[in-house]
Amino acid sequence: MALIQISNVKKHYTSGNDVVEALRGVDITIEAGEFITIMGQSGSGKSTLLSVLGGMNHPTTGEVEMAGVKLYQLPGEKLADFRAQNLGFVFQSFHLIPYLTAIENVMLPLAIVKMGTAAKKSAARQALERVGLGAKLERLPNQLSGGEQERVAIARAIVNNPHILLADEPTGNLDSKTSDEVMALLRELNAAGQTVVMVTHNPDNGRYADRTITLRDGMVVEP
Amino acid sequence: MKLHNISINNLKRRKAKMAFLTIGLMVGIATIVTLVTLTRSMSSDIERKMDEFGANILVTPQSNGLAMNYGGISLGGVTFDQREILESDLAKIKTISNHKNISAVAPKVLGGVKIGTHDVLLVGVNFESELKMKQWWKVFGHEPKSEQDLLLGSEASRVLNVSPGESLIIKGETFTVAGVLDQTGSQDDALVFASLGKAQKLLGKEGKITLAEVAALCSGCPIGDMVTQIAEKLPDAKVSAIQQVVEGRLKALNQFKRFSYAMAGVVVFIGSLIVFVTMMGSVNERTTEIGVFRAIGFRKSHIMRIILLEAALVSLLAGFLGYVAGMGGAKLALPFMAESKNAHLIWDTAIAFGSIGLALTLGLLASLYPALHASKMDPTEALRAL
Q1: For chain A, what is the mean pLDDT?
Q2: Same domain for B75 and B175?
Q3: How many contacts, defined by CB atoms under 8 Å, are there between A and B?
Q4: Is A97–B292 a contact, with Cβ atoms under 8 angstroms apart?
Q5: Residue B280 lies in a domain
Q6: Do both B182 and B318 map to the same domain?
Q7: Which CATH architecture has domain A4-222?
Q8: Per-residue pLDDT tens listing for chain B (386 residues)
Q9: Where are the domains of chain A?
Q10: What would the pLDDT profile of B298-335 be if each residue is shown by its tens digit?
Q11: Residue B211, domain member (yes or no)
């Protein structure tokens, strides 16, 4: 059984009198342990697809099933709980909380988990060590380089051992050398069993993936 | 890492904004504390002074008499069916429902006696309550202590030509002039005061009194009610209130109170507005951050808790600082506002806890909408910011 099943997902936005069709009937199946890149030009619907996949953006029609759970049929705040337990997010601009240290940023997803502070710290430390930042636990984001901030963001995304790691242009703000390091890190995590779905516009990143899905005008063109 | 760590760290990061918020709320709370404390201290000062002014309820026997005096010159009166009050009935005054407001009951018996060649008005009083009520009396010599001691008004002392320590004979009984009153400019100057029991015996009015003065004064005391209550207990007595002075002063104080509360209301409104605008601004600045929180699985209630906890912490600090600043302001302003120089500042823990509680309530109420707004933010905001 597929880990993620996206069936005929459409997403329409209304802007004044205009209706923008961001996704126009997308069907995707992703197996556990896969490394998928979603590619496409600006406005092709990549980020919308990722947000729909991440349980943050209700599709206009269609269904998203993840680990046997129909995401958008979850009642009330159960969807937030599902995200907390099953999904990890890596954003292009890192979106680290500027007033929290590296380890505090990584502990953020655990703030709403019933766990002792020591256990939370230990998990965060392990995640940071895994991304190679074990020596910079107490640094604030502005004391870290772009690549290091991206690593902290990845550590934050994996600290709760999610089923799926969703990354939106994780190398968009990095130079090519740092990009390669980050991609190698994601590949390494994938090799350890982590399912990764990554949106990117950089064709070079496709070489790290098992499979590339290309979107054009809200539709999958190369399944 | 817990939710409160996020709130505390955010407060630390936005020091200037949070200081502005704290000062805004603090000024509001300080103003309220100053006004309330000033009002209460001034009320207390007036109460104390009113006690010094003496009686404000007069209990006299019922009569059909018409007073015949004008401008302090008495021509006697036409009295029919004169009744008297039994001294034992006075105890009933202490049984009225507002008995706690009574600070002193001063019974008096009056009657004319001959001392030497002079006709003198003898007044039997309970010296203890009389001296308590008439704190403006200045006694030369010493205060009467025994039944054989007399206290003379200044004019009586001059006319009878006696000084403290000398003796006087009334109806064959020898008394000692314990003290002489300094001139008061009132009827007291011409009177001879003896102890109540002794005067009753000399005048042949044992167990009876001519009138009683009651001191029952405090801000907001229901004087009218108390008059009615005493009249019900003493149906044969005429009970009247000496209200003009009290009412005038209380009216002025009540006007100040109303002004204070109106001003406090305006300040509270402005304080709340500052909290609301600052928290709303803070929430809007943190759109991406809140989006990230939602994306990683924070519930709406978690977001609300973070925002409201920040508001609560700032409000608690503002409440405490507001109380301290307000009391300082009241202490500085009291000498200029109070009628007497020795007016005391009232330190009340209820005001301390009340001001902190008020700050907390205002802070939380004013932050409720910003918190709700934050919690309802679309998590895709975080991704949209890319």
Answers
A1: 89
A2: no
A3: 93
A4: yes
A5: yes
A6: no
A7: 3-Layer(aba) Sandwich (3.40)
A8: 888 888 898 888 888 888 888 998 898 899 889 988 888 888 777 766 666 555 578 888 876 666 555 544 554 444 444 467 888 888 888 888 888 778 778 889 888 888 888 889 999 998 888 887 787 788 999 999 888 999 999 999 999 999 999 999 998 889 999 999 998 888 889 999 999 999 999 888 888 888 888 877 655 567 778 888 888 888 888 888 765 555 666 677 778 788 888 888 888 888 888 889 988 888 888 888 888 898 888 999 999 999 999 999 999 999 999 999 999 998 888 888 776 666 778 888 888 999 999 999 999 999 999 999 888 887 776 456 43
A9: 4-222
A10: 999 999 999 999 999 999 999 999 999 999 998 888 88
A11: no
Interface residue B288 vs chain A (CB under 8 A): yes
* Residues 120-139 in A contacting B (C-alpha not used; CB under 8 Å): 120, 124
Best mutation target among B11, B15, B383, B384 (most A Cβ atoms within 10 Å) is B383
Coil/strand/helix, residue A125:
helix
Longest dimension (CA), chain B: 112
Token couple for B365? 């109420």
Q: How far is B10 from chain A (nearest CA, A)?
A: 6
- For residue B365, being part of any structural domain is answered with yes
Within chain A, how many helices (H) and strands (E) appear? 6, 10
pTM > 0.90: yes or no: no
Domain range enclosing B234:
56-103+216-241
Does this complex have an ipTM over 0.95?
A: no
Rounded distance between C-alpha atoms, residue B371 and residue B288, angstroms: 15
